[in-house]
Design brief:
67 residues, mainly alpha
């Protein structure tokens, strides 16, 4: 569950809340998968880590190019 930063605090990172949610969820899955591969038992929630990365501009949401 996303607690800090919340979706409304990230609203300037994308066009809408849906895209923010998708980006955070996708990154959280990557973090969780990496933890399993490395057998890392970090306590922090992958969703919170992903949201913080987005807030700190460590990850970006890119626009899709329509053809």
């Amino acid at each position: 569950m996303l607690s800090k930063p919340n979706i409304s605090e990230l609203k300037d990172k994308a066009e809408n809340r849906y895209k923010i949610s998708l980006a955070v969820a996708k990154r959280a899955r990557q973090i969780a998968k990496k933890r399993l591969e490395e057998d890392n038992e970090d306590i922090k929630d992958p969703v919170d880590i992903a949201a913080i990365e987005l807030e700190q501009d460590k990850i970006k949401i890119v626009k899709e190019i329509e053809e």
